[in-house]
Design brief:
This protein is mostly helical. The protein is built from 6 helices and 3 strands, in the order H-H-E-H-E-E-H-H-H. It has one domain: Zincin-like, CATH 3.30.2010.
């Protein structure tokens, strides 16, 4: 807490929350994720935003970068390792704009990116979330 008694969650707070969420996952999911770091950045890099066809970095709360489980044998030598990125400023902005509990919001973003690690498309995830 700061001298005003409240502060927005820091990157370290989000990393700790992400670790708790991962630890609570059922075993069939935990093992394939054990070597996938969760990295918290303030915002997505401009190049990432552009590559995804977005206009605003605040539109991206998380990103899975890597090769989905099941396709790892197709990984090229020297390829970047799998990583999950959470973008703090975008998450904070969404949190301020909604009535969603902060922990639930981070959990939803992280689970969405974990689903990409397992090879699910955005359409697959939407069907499960809203189907």
């Amino acid at each position: 807490m700061n001298e005003r008694g409240w502060y927005p969650p820091s990157a370290d707070d989000i990393v700790r929350l992400g670790q708790e969420i991962l630890a609570d996952l059922p075993e069939p999911f935990r093992t394939p994720l054990r070597d996938v770091p969760v990295v918290v950045q303030e915002l997505a890099e401009d190049e990432v935003v552009k590559d995804l066809g977005l206009e605003n970095p605040y539109d991206l709360t998380g990103l899975y970068a890597g090769i989905p489980v099941g396709l790892h044998e197709a990984r090229e030598s020297g390829a970047q390792p799998d990583m999950i990125f959470l973008f703090r400023q975008a998450i904070l902005a969404e949190w301020c704009e909604t009535d969603v509990d902060f922990n639930d919001l981070v959990r939803n973003v992280l689970i969405h990116e974990i689903a990409h690690h397992f090879g699910w498309s955005d359409e697959d995830i939407e069907r499960v979330e809203f189907g």
